[in-house]
Amino acid sequence: xxxxxxxxxxxxxxxxxxxxxxxxxxxxxxxxxxxxxxxxxxxxxxxxxxxxxxxxxxxxxxxxxxxxxxxxxxxxxxxxxxxxxxxxxxxxxxxxxxxxxxxxxxxxxxxxxxxxxxxxxxxxxxxxxxxxxxxxxxxxxxxxxxxxxxxxxxxxxxxxxxxxxxxxxxxxxxxxxxxxxxxxxxxxxxxxxxxxxxxxxxxxxxxxxxxxxxxxxxxxxxxxxxxxxxxxxxxxxxxxxxxxxxxxxxxxxxxxxxxxxxxxxxxxxxxxxxxxxxxxxxxxxxxxxxxxxxxxxxxxxxxxxxxxxxxxxxxxxxxxxxxxxxxxxxxxxxxxxxxxxxxxxxxxxxxxxxxxxxxxxxxxxxxxxxxxxxxxxxxxxxxxxxxxxxxxxxxxxxxxxxxxxxxxxxxxxxxxxxxxxxxxxxxxxxxxxxxxxxxxxxxxxxxxxxxxxxxxxxxxxxxxxxxxxxxxxxxxxxxxxxxxxxxxxxxxxxxxxxxxxxxxxxxxx
Length: 509
Fold this sequence. Notes:
By secondary structure, the protein is α/β, with parallel strands linked by helices. It folds into three domains: 203 residues, Spore Coat Polysaccharide Biosynthesis Protein SpsA, Chain A (Alpha-Beta Complex); 122 residues, no CATH class; 165 residues, Rossmann fold, CATH 3.40.50. It contains 19 helices and 15 strands. Helix 15 links the parallel strand 12 and strand 13. Helix 11 crosses helix 13 and helix 12 crosses helix 13.
């Protein structure tokens, strides 16, 4: 089995490291990607990117796009979308422009993707951060080293295109290379996919940074507010993100501001007490940063200066985020979901009323909106099939002829259907076609000449939705009186009616 089709997306702000990354990618052994999209996210007029010297085969794979300086989230969306629509590749591998991939990265990625079953929406590579061996690392170097233990970072993260499409891609309200990857991962998990850790390896060198880089990083406090708004107060637990020092910074900044206010009001004892509290907290924070480092003159000076400013900057950005994101709601994305090529509908309980073990065509009664909903799918050029478990055959309650007669009556009232898939087996027969197994979905896709991920399944119970997930198709639950509450609670996509399910797939009329 070959590697699934793959696109590599690399957002860049024009750093020289981009050429080194492409060199390492070109030198990596393994099947070549179908496309490499480099997204230039520098603002202003276009400038030439240094892509280095590529051989003809790799040069033909690389496309450069511009995203106008809107940030890495928007740049990545520009990379995996084609004219606003999801690309045709099955997987998108995102790389940062300052990493270097291992000499076996392409072959290891291929193995990671082959090992990902249909329920896996994303796969993360292993990141290593080399630190100096001749001295203790600086504060900036230690912070960068934390990437090695981070979860779902897009320094090296591959996502299934169907998963990205379902959640609307990266949330472009995250303007920095911070939290946009964690937000996407949580939304992909909320949509029903799992995330896996692969075996491929990449290196993230510590790039040079100005002395005040840690101060500039405090803008991320506003992004943390957005994460809490979108994912709840316990989002850090789910994202495996450390808590940080926000509460301490708020207390330190409040003490400092209070000391200045008391001094202005000539309340000298209060000013002295608050000033001492501020100084003690600031000194402790500075020492926590200085002690593990090389303690050179420049490092100590930078840590002392930024330790004074960081509590105020962190608190200010947090308050700004509280205001800016006070009405934040779930990201709807700018990705118009592509309509499926084929839709498979369950029979009993979904398009016709469920009559247990029905062998009588005269008892067939369509669901009230089934004819109109199926008509909308056909008018949109979408193939429509039926997948149905009929264990009554295995149990001896029904004959195949009776089931066929009922199916003919369903088609007479609601058809024509492009394909019928019937599982005649019982729960203990060990077949591969009985829902929740994916056999009928896979067989239907094969007969129609489409990929399973281009299909959708509509049903009324979890077995229908699980069959879709196992095949890599979209699943939509349309509950009725037989649907259990836990099935409704666990459904990724939920519609109140069959017509509403069609709205989700092709848009409201």
